[in-house]
Amino acid sequence: MKAITLYDVALLAGVSYQTVSRVINDAEHVSARTREKVQKAMAELHYVPNRGAQQLAGKRTRTLGLMTTDLALHAPSQIVSAVKSRAVEKGASVLISMVENAWQCQAALQELLAQRVEALLVNVPLDDAHAEQLQALASPVPILFLDVSPGAQVHSLVFSAEQGAALGAEHLLSLGHQRIALLCGPESSVSARARLAGWQETLTQAGLEPVAVVKGDWSAASGYEKGHQILSGAVQPDAILVANDQMALGVMRACAEKGIAIPGQISIVGFDDTADSAWFTPPLTTIRQAFREAGEQSVEWLLAPVSAGELWQKQLPVTLITRHSSARHIPRQADREDLARQLRALALLAEQLARE
Q1: With contact defined as beta carbons under 8 Å apart, do 28 and 60 qualify?
Q2: pLDDT per residue as tens digits for the range 272-308
Q3: What dihedral angle (degrees, nearest 10) is formed by the CA atoms of 100, 104, 105, 107?
């Protein structure tokens, strides 16, 4: 089959070859009527412009590089979607490189740089030293990190994990929960470690220790497995703080299988506010992170980075979204009996002191 060319489009549209070229390259001084005729001819002929040829001809599209982890997870997929959408709005394209762990980042960086990207976005959990090394290797190409600690000496746009963790823990404490279990993300994740630290600090300030601390891998399957582990422990928690909504979904399944009512017998608080969390049974109380905003702001920075030598760092706020998976703690019968025993003991002690 003969390949369709610009000349074929021009013939069908009744315009010159140069006019078709100007329409494809979005040049000025083309009337709306002419542009519509050309676009209609292209559609009718199923003509697809050769972007590679355009770049060789000097019409190079601005290209951004994006390094990310597993797109099956909610947060990375939402950020990639936002980055792609905003880049298209700005007339830029995005090359994506997926990595399974931090040690693959250097090879992915070299691959993206070889494709002449003009700026890089890294959404992979990295320790400070590793992120700083990648920034040095990328120089002079600007690079922005989304999953590093605020202390890393790199350009970064991050959410306040400690603030989010504190909001979740304080919410449960305000409802009277004291036997609180923690389901964390993997140790390799900077944000998972920060969320755990935030939970522990808030509980310590309240004079409490978690009844269990378990680590998952962010997946719903992991939440289900670890949820059963927590619920089978020696001490039954009356609330669980979970490091992301997908694991929280698995925990809720484990509760259902054990006949534990949410929130009647146990409260669950997630983290992320995924699009589906409002439709869990019951709807999930969680910590909202504005992933779309993060992706859009990242593109703005990538296309107009700060001056050389100036460190750009920004923390985005998080918010508590209260739904129906958390409620005021109602003491169980055993708890009420224990409380009654304590009150009787105090009453006897008071009588003894009064007689003395």
Answers
A1: no
A2: 999 899 999 999 999 999 999 999 999 999 998 666 5
A3: -140
Tens digits of residue pLDDT in 87-106: 999 989 999 999 988 889 99
Tokens of 90: 């700005």
For residue 255, the SS3 value is helix
Domains and CATH numbers, the chain: 6-56 (1.10.260.40), 62-159+292-316 (3.40.50.2300), 161-290+320-330 (3.40.50.2300)
CA–CA gap between residue 343 and residue 337 (Å, rounded):
10
DSSP per-residue string spanning 169-234? HHHHHHTT--SEEEEE--TT-HHHHHHHHHHHHHHHHTT---SEEEE--SSHHHHHHHHHHHHTSS
Q: Residue 119's closest CA among 41, 159, 65, 162? A: 65
* Token pair listed for 269: 């608080």
The model's pTM: 0.74
51 and 78 Cβ atoms separated by less than 8 Å: no
